[in-house]
# Entry
Amino acid sequence: MRLLHPKKLNLDSLDPKSREIMEKTIAFFEGKGLKKVKHDDHERVWYADFLDFVKREQIFYALMTPAQYGDAEHVRFDSYRNNFFNEILGFYGLAYWYTWQVTMLGLGPIWNSKNEAIKKETARRLKEGAIFAFGLSEKEHGADLIASEMKVTAAGPGKYIANGRKYYIGNANKASYVSTFARELSTGDYIFFAAESDHKNYTCVQNVVNSQNYVAEYELKEYPFTDFEVLSRGRDAWDASLATIAYCKYNLGWASIGICTHAFYEAINHAANRVLFRHKVTDFPHIKQFMTDAWTRLLAMRLFSFRASDYMRSASEDDKRYLLYNPLVKMKVTMQGEEVVNLLWDVIAAKGFEKSGYFEMAARDIRGLPKLEGTAQVNMVLIMKFMDKFFFEPFSYPELPRQKHFKNDDFLFEQGSTSKGQNKIQFHDFNIAYNSTKVSNVKIFQAQIEVFKEFLSKTPPDKGQSRDLDFMLNVGELFTLVPYGQLIIESANSEKISDDILDQIFDFMVRDFSKYALQMYSRTSSTPEQMELCLKMIKKPAVNVERFTRVWEKEVLALDQSYHMNP
Ligand SMILES: Cc1cc2nc3c(=O)[nH]c(=O)nc-3n(C[C@H](O)[C@H](O)[C@H](O)COP(=O)(O)OP(=O)(O)OC[C@H]3O[C@@H](n4cnc5c(N)ncnc54)[C@H](O)[C@@H]3O)c2cc1C
# Structure
């Protein structure tokens, strides 16, 4: 397993129908061609052609309907195959991914609901090609859901009226149902209900962004609905919103991976065939380093995310480790995506601005992903709660094999509360993965982890530092590296990634650890004892020119001219 290659697909792990969906989706985009994809992006053309294709092939129905509401075996909510679909859409254009993503978000509160009648109706609409939307955000409140102002009042038995506005809501111009989060005026309780965008009391006020996507502001004015459209109330409504985000945020990492992969092919094709000062650009030592770093970072993003899907798919009441790994896919993987595109852009420079290439879209879109569905910082705050248990109270779980089977991921719709009892969640010992390999840079990285553990036990953040989010985000960056590296190794072991590649991946991991340790050292409030340990965390990766050259030549440069999108 390396990177997605649309013309040399390896989808052996999927069932025939799922393979067909992926192949047809690729054929749709290759048939559309790069020129038309770019034209539609520049002219901000609503992607009706893509939605027609999705409708014709019943793709959203097949991929996003839980098995019990579908009418065929291939209709199921299977996160493993959804990884591929996410990646393919990111590869061809984030706009196409976005309409899929916000449909999944919109469906979340419905599938999470106990309202069987609306679930059946939703499956019927999905089969007919409908898209959906998730109406959570409001203009003034951002991450502060508690402040939501959309109001619902009772209007007789089983009848309600809604009033208010929502902002930044994807697909809300065309969505069949817009899952809308509000408060009941009489009790102050939360409520989720399904609004229909073609109702006369629903106004799509504007597209807030200037792009192919429709990210709407909508208004409900005396909007009537009944018990049929009520999805959940009170604590259940609150939990449904967080549970939906808990698995949908995972898609953002895959969109990043898709974007970076396409950008990578364009970059290597360009750089390896450009001659400057009588040298190929790829002969410059810094270019070799940038491209190798970009490729290893990208492969690591993919390895990590595949492994994270195993934990999400196997989650249960007794095993909620995915609540650490999913935010990492959202936060760490998308931020790594920015780093990959930065590296590639430094290589191809002016070429990255050209209107005819995919890269121009990648450079713009890659930056959005860390900011959506909770900013990277909000996700960091979420995962910091796991740090103590992760380092100091490991739990013995049975070894988890890869989860590629063709099954419905039932637990995603039965997660209950994802915000209560987090401090009780335990993790398996990260040393199991780190001890499973002897490659030099993993050993250096392990030594860095040991010093970080010493830092946490001997000189933990004091009261002032704990209240200082700027300081704690730095602690979080160091913590994040540990499960990130752990799942990369777990995935590399099962995918038979060579020691050369793993060593080269941990070359950048060691450098990243050192970078964050130096930042911590330099913080205003770091104490002399903390500073001493920070210096001990700073290490140099193992130098091995032969290994670097092998990876560069056999893995990275070898991709030159291997993929061009159809013009
Ligand atoms: C293109 C686009 C599409 C979108 N699609 C949808 C959609 O379909 N449905 C929907 O409901 N929403 C959607 N959104 C909204 C999106 O989810 C929010 O923008 C995002 O959650 C961040 O909110 P905000 O931008 O208002 O930032 P704010 O919440 O205003 O945050 C401001 C700053 O404060 C920090 N901050 C806030 N709270 C905390 C905290 N507790 N701890 C630490 N730091 C904190 C943030 O990190 C950030 O730096 C979309 C937004 C865009 C731009």
About this structure: The mean pLDDT is 96. The longest strand covers residues 159-170. The chain has three domains: 16-131, 133-234, 249-395+420-557.
